[in-house]
């Protein structure tokens, strides 16, 4: 017999949704996670895998710093090595102006307790010897406690542990309808089943907007597409996750280098690779890292990310529908935040309030970007 | 002169390119222009192209898909020998892992 009633139903099997399900199961709640496809195969499995604290929005930094503590112990918690390594995160400042603004952010982050340092061009070249000789950049900003993990493994491992703790993970169950009764969400239906619960969480990334429409909510969320190129495995030549401008690169444990392959907003949910964007990205990266010119690109993939207008997530209880919670709009940098968001959402639902202040992530906030110092990159 | 590395080929009915020498792990092998390196090595009796994860690898799909036959050709690693034609004097070396060297 299939039990379709639970304390909480989580819609969306990405890193935020699966972490929420795991945390709720650990708190002894019955929880069902519904995923339209397979868990961890959208943005959470199609990202660069950076686990980064530096250069975040001020409101996000405390969450990221708490999340890092969960990441550090993940290998024991999940009884699985998801490839999390603290190999550092390096932001290259291309111009003196960018260096100045990074320096300001560096001071602020230091005052908030993050270990970060500014590097000169020589220091950066010491960390990464393969940068083009003729590229005269201003310097860099380095956070040694940042790192990366393998996106293909993380969500699968979280769901495996959630199942072990009693959560039901239902794959291939797209939500088709939601029923509201006197300001409460009472049930949701899929093609085959109807589910009842006391509380619901929508953590469906790019599909959140559509789900919100079903209960008469209009979300400000937009969909962007990111592409990543993967090179053949290479000998060890750098450790940190490198970011400069809108580009990034990371060397996976197996030796393949994952490269930024283009990013743009889209209207349709299209995961087809754009080879034009691909070639453009590869060309741009090769001007700064010329050794990559001779290296083979063995594959690439595109993923959909969910953007909010001010590029920080929405983590809130919907004002008019008191048993509906939303965790979405991570704007391309939710991979690191996933575990803490799961923990906070679980606390909110089970204990009545989250242990960290989430007031900056309200549903009904003013979405205008006004603070230019809230540096936010991928 | 009898050349062992050419013995496997059909003698009659084929029009071949000119004779070239290729260097496989320091050993000189004869081949004809227009052949792939994979053809030349198999004809000379060398079935193992290299090792990965300590397992011997060789030509498997022979159409450039599987990457099983990857070798170092003229200094460029991870080259598929089934898709690369012989040139006179080209240097072919086995790889013991698939990690591309940094230039």
Report on the structure:
- The complex is a heterodimer of chains A (378) and B (103).
- By secondary structure, chain A is α/β, with parallel strands linked by helices.
- Chain A is built from nine helices and 18 strands.
- Chain A folds into two domains: 5-79 and 151-220 and 309-361, FAD/NAD(P)-binding domain (3-Layer(bba) Sandwich), CATH 3.50.50; 89-145 and 222-307, D-Amino Acid Oxidase, Chain A, domain 2 (2-Layer Sandwich), CATH 3.30.9.10.
- The radius of gyration of chain A is 21 Å and the shape is globular.
- With 103 residues, chain B is mainly beta.
- Chain B has a single domain, classed as Ubiquitin-like (UB roll), CATH 3.10.20.440.
- In chain B, strand 1 (19-24) and strand 2 (27-32) form a beta hairpin.
- The A-B interface holds A 130, 231-235, 237, 255, 291, 294-296 and B 76, 78, 98-103.
Describe the global form of chain B: globular
**CATH fold title of chain B:** Ubiquitin-like (UB roll)
CATH architecture term of the largest domain in chain A = 3-Layer(bba) Sandwich
Percent range for β-strand residues of chain B:
25-35%
Inertia-based shape of chain A: globular
Tally of helical runs of chain A? 9
As residue ranges, the low-confidence spans of chain B are none
Nearest-integer average pLDDT of chain A: 92
Output the strand order for the largest sheet of chain B: 2-1-7-5-6
Strand content of chain A: 25-35%
Tally of extended strands of chain B?
Answer: 7
CATH class term of chain B: Alpha Beta
Can you give keywords for this protein?
heterodimer, A: 378 residues, alpha/beta, FAD/NAD(P)-binding domain, D-Amino Acid Oxidase, Chain A, domain 2, eight-stranded mixed sheet, 18 strands, globular, B: 103 residues, mainly beta, Ubiquitin-like (UB roll), two-stranded antiparallel sheet, 1 helix
């Amino acid at each position: 017999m299939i039990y379709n009633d639970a304390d909480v139903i989580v819609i969306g099997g990405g890193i935020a949704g699966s972490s929420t399900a795991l945390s709720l199961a650990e708190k002894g709640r019955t929880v069902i996670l519904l995923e339209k496809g397979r868990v961890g195969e959208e943005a959470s499995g199609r990202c660069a895998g950076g686990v980064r604290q530096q250069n975040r929005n001020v409101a996000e930094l405390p969450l990221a710093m708490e999340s890092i503590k969960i990441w550090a112990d993940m290998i024991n918690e999940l009884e699985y090595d998801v490839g999390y390594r603290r190999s550092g995160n390096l932001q290259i400042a291309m111009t003196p102006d960018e260096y100045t603004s990074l320096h300001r952010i560096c001071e602020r982050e230091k005052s908030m307790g993050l270990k970060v340092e500014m590097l000169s061009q020589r220091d950066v070249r010491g960390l990464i010897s393969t940068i083009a000789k003729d590229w005269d950049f201003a310097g860099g900003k380095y956070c040694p406690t940042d790192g990366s993990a393998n996106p293909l493994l993380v969500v699968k491992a979280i769901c495996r542990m959630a199942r072990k703790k009693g959560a039901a993970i239902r794959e291939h169950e797209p939500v088709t309808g939601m029923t509201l009764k006197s300001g409460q969400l009472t049930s949701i239906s899929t093609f085959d089943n109807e589910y009842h619960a006391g509380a619901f969480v929508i953590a469906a990334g790019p599909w959140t907007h559509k789900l919100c429409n079903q209960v008469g909510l209009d979300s400000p969320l937009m969909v962007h597409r990111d592409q990543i190129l993967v090179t053949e495995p290479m000998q060890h030549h750098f450790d940190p996750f490198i970011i400069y401008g809108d580009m990034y690169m990371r060397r996976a444990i197996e030796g393949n280098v994952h490269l930024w392959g283009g990013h743009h907003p889209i209207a349709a949910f299209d995961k087809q690779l754009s080879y034009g964007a691909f070639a453009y990205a590869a060309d741009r990266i090769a001007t700064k890292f010329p050794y990559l010119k001779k290296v083979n690109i063995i594959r690439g993939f595109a993923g959909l990310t969910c953007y909010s207008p001010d590029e920080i997530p929405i983590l809130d209880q919907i004002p008019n529908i008191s048993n509906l919670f939303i965790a979405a709009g991570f704007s391309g940098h939710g991979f690191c935040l996933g575990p803490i968001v799961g923990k906070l959402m679980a606390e909110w639902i089970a204990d009545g309030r989250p242990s960290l202040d989430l007031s900056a992530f309200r549903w009904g906030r003013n979405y205008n970007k006004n603070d230019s110092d809230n540096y936010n990159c991928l | 002169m009898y050349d062992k590395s050419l013995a496997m080929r059909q003698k009659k009915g084929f029009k071949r390119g000119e004779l070239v020498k290729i260097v496989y792990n320091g050993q000189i092998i004869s081949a004809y222009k227009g052949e792939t390196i994979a053809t030349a090595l198999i004809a000379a009796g060398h079935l193992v192209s290299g090792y990965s994860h300590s397992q011997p690898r060789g030509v498997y799909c022979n159409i450039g898909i599987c990457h099983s036959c990857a070798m170092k050709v003229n200094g460029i690693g991870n080259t598929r020998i089934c898709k690369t034609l012989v040139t006179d004097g080209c240097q072919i070396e086995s790889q013991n892992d698939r990690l591309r060297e940094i230039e």
